[in-house]
Write a structure and sequence with these properties.
Largest sheet: 5 strands, antiparallel
Order of helices and strands: EEEEHHEEEEEHEEEHEEH
Keywords: Hydrolase, Repeat, Transit peptide
Structural class: alpha+beta
Strand order of the largest sheet: 9-11-12-13-10
GO biological process, one term: acyl-CoA metabolic process
Family: Belongs to the acyl coenzyme A hydrolase family.
Domain HotDog ACOT-type: 132-258
CATH superfamily of the largest domain: Hotdog Thioesterase
Radius of gyration: 22 Å
Distance between the termini: 29 Å
GO cellular component, one term: mitochondrion
CATH topology of the largest domain: Thiol Ester Dehydrase, Chain A
């Protein structure tokens, strides 16, 4: 089922303002066996508006299940190619990607250490940031007070903790106040049990102007089931066995800084997150701007 919620509130003049829209995807479960799904009644449209709503929802479901929508387009391939060509072109060393810093109208290459000619200049500022440098994490223990009626950790608790981490990360990134503008593509992949050690890892995936796209991934580690978890995700030697449970995507707006640092993926593994964040931010801007 898809359930749509809209929130309205009267302003000081008494006019009704549309503040929020949320769409939830629900799965009906057998009340006697929570592991089984049950079919729900279909909907019949009585008006053209209702028919249009149902058709748009069917199209939404179709796109969600279509793997082609997750594949890179030719335009995105060119974007990544041009971006890395620019990064490598700044370096005097072959195949070494470097960032740039700005001093007024002057831009120079920056690879992680201050160039010799800039060491006497105190007010240089970065204009770009590597994506992996934006990582911010927090760990929680799941107590019974956070459980829902089915004995699992309440989804609202997970969303709140992810939002708090994303808000903190965005605030640190732009060094100022931020406001949340959108929550998109929130996925509940696996239930979280009481007693699990819950890890939240956030990363800035895309920026444009004053807007910041932040992705938060939730994983669990159970000390009593480490061998089982290790078989599921094949961790490398020395790493803790974890399993992904949730993914959250947030669009933040910098309130005080009209132009935030440009985030850049240094490693290929991050380019997918970069392009996914770009898609989400562009979709958000179409709705709110």
């Amino acid at each position: 089922m898809q359930v749509c919620l809209r929130l309205f509130q009267n302003d000081e003049s008494g006019n009704l303002m549309h503040l929020l829209k949320a769409e939830f995807i629900m799965v009906s479960r057998d009340p006697l066996d929570g592991t089984k799904k049950v079919r729900v009644h279909g909907l019949t449209a009585l008006t053209p508006d209702e028919a249009d709503t149902i058709n748009r929802t069917k199209e939404h479901f179709r796109k969600m299940g279509d793997s082609a929508n997750r594949q890179l387009t030719s335009e995105e391939f060119r974007l990544i190619h041009d971006m890395y060509s620019e990064l490598v072109g700044r370096s005097m060393v072959h195949d070494v990607a470097v960032l740039s810093v700005g001093i007024g109208d002057l831009k120079v290459a920056y690879s992680g250490t201050v160039p010799l000619r800039l060491r006497k200049i105190r007010n240089f500022q970065k204009s770009e940031m590597w994506m992996h440098k934006t990582n911010l994490s927090v760990t929680e223990i799941c107590f019974p007070e956070y459980q829902n009626m089915y004995g699992k950790i309440f989804g609202g608790f997970l969303m709140r903790k992810a939002l708090e981490l994303a808000h903190t990360n965005a605030k640190l990134y732009c060094k100022g106040r931020v406001a949340i503008r959108s929550m998109d593509q929130i996925e509940f992949q696996k239930p979280v049990e009481i007693g699990h050690v819950l890890h939240f890892d956030s990363m800035v995936t895309y920026t444009e102007g004053k807007y910041i796209q932040v992705k938060v991934a939730a994983t669990i580690s159970d000390q009593h089931k480490l061998p089982e978890l290790a078989k599921l995700n094949n961790p490398t030697l020395g790493e803790e066995a974890r399993v992904n449970t949730n993914v959250f995507n947030f669009t933040m707006e910098s309130v005080e800084n009209p132009s935030v640092l440009r985030v850049v993926p240094k490693h290929y593994v991050h380019t997918t997150s970069y392009l996914e964040g770009r898609r989400l931010l562009n979709n958000t801007l179409k709705r709110i701007v």
